[in-house]
Each structure stands twice: as C-alpha cells, then as structure tokens.
Amino acid sequence: QLQLVESGGGLVQPGGSLRLSCAASGFTLDNYAIGWFRQAPGKVREGVSCISVSGRGTNYADSVKGRFTISRDNAKNTVYLQMDSLKPEDTAVYYCAARPRSMWINTDQPRCVQGAMLGWGQGTQVTVSS
Hints:
By secondary structure, the protein is mainly β. The chain is 0% helix and 45% strand. The relative contact order is 0.32.
C-alpha cells in the first residue's frame, strides 16, 4: 500500500527555517513525482511545490518562490522541503503526495495535480509565530 509520512514540522519564529521530510513506506519513490501541499485553517488545500520523477524539474507556488526548495534523495527514499525566511502566512498543515510515472508526462515535468495524487500522509504542522 502506497503511504507517505511527513515529518519535520514545528514552531518557528518569522524569518526562521524548517526542513520537512516526506518518506515512503512500502514502495520506492523512483517512479513518482512528489508534491507538497498545505492547508491553513479555514482555507482550501493548496499546492506548494512539486518535483518531477527525474528530479530535474521543480515548480513552486508564487507565494514561496525564492524561499522554499524541494529536493529528492532516492537512495534514502525521501523528498525534502527546505523552508527558509518563513512568514506567519506559511502556517499550515503540510502534506506530501505522489503521482505515478505516466507515459503521457515527461519525467522531467513537475506536474502535481491534487486530484491525481496518491498516498496522502497525515501531515505535519508548521506554525510560524513570534
């Protein structure tokens, strides 16, 4: 059963950093694009970042560009989200999910559409507050 587990959340002051991890259980990440999503209280879940199957393609929501960095380490079966210069508006529960390799999508394309994602984890809480 495809299952992802998020970790690394916590309480941090504005301007601080956190690194989230997304680990796979029961399968290897090699054939999946991985996306990070977040949901703040009272808001819909939104896409934050996506990394392609190959790892050569990444994208970011405009709100986090230049502050967040997504990466993958297939040897460790883990995807990371490095979050720097955190702002109070980054406060949310962060989730990761996987999209299987597809013959219709180039492996370099970072395409992570919520409706096509699998293996949603329980999420990890990120709180940015002084």
